[in-house]
Amino acid sequence: MAHIAPEIFNGLILGAFYAVVAIGLSLIMNLTGTINLAHGSFMTLAGYLAFAMVSAGTSFWFALAVAPILTAIVGIAVERTLIRPLYRRDPVYSLLLTFGLSLIAEEVYRLIWGGNGVPFSPPPQLQGFVSLGFTDFPTYRLFIAGALLVIIIALALFLRRTRIGLRLRAAVQDHEMIGALGTNTQLLYMINFGLGILVAGLAGVLAAGLLGLNPQSGNALLMPAFVTVIVGGMGSLFGAVVGGLLIGVAISITTLYLPAFSEIAMYVIMAVVLLVRPRGLFGEEGIFG
Amino acid sequence: MSEIILEAKNVSKRFGGVRAVEDVSLEVPRGSIQAIIGPNGAGKSTLFNALSGFYIPEEGTVSFNGVDITRAPGYRRIVMGMGRTFQTSSIFPNLTVWDNLLIGVQSAEKMEFRLRPMSASKRAEVEAKIERLLDFVNLKTSAHRPVAELAHGSQRLCEIAMSLSTDPSLVMLDEPMAGLAHAETTRVVEVIRKLHSELGLTVLFVEHNMRVVLSLAQQITVLDRGKTLAKGTPAEISNNDAVKEAYIGREVIEHV
Amino acid sequence: MIPRRPALIATAVLLVILVFAPQIAPLLHLATSIFTAVLLYTIAAMAVNLLIGYSGVLPFGNAAFFGLGAYGAGLAIKYFHVPFFTSIAVGIVASVIGSLLIGPFLLRRRGIYFSLLMIAFGQVFYFIAYRFTDITGGEDGMNFSRPAIEFTKLKPNDDQLYYIMLALFAIVVVAFWFIVRSPFGRSLVAIRENETRAKYLGLNTDRLILCALLISAAIEGLAGACYGLSIMFADPLMLDWHQSGNIVLMTILGGSGTVLGPFLGALIFEIGSDVLSTAIPWWQIPLGALFVVCVLGFPKGILGTFLDWIEKRGAKEASS
Question: Are B65 and B107 in contact (CB under 8 A)?
Answer without folding.
Answer: no
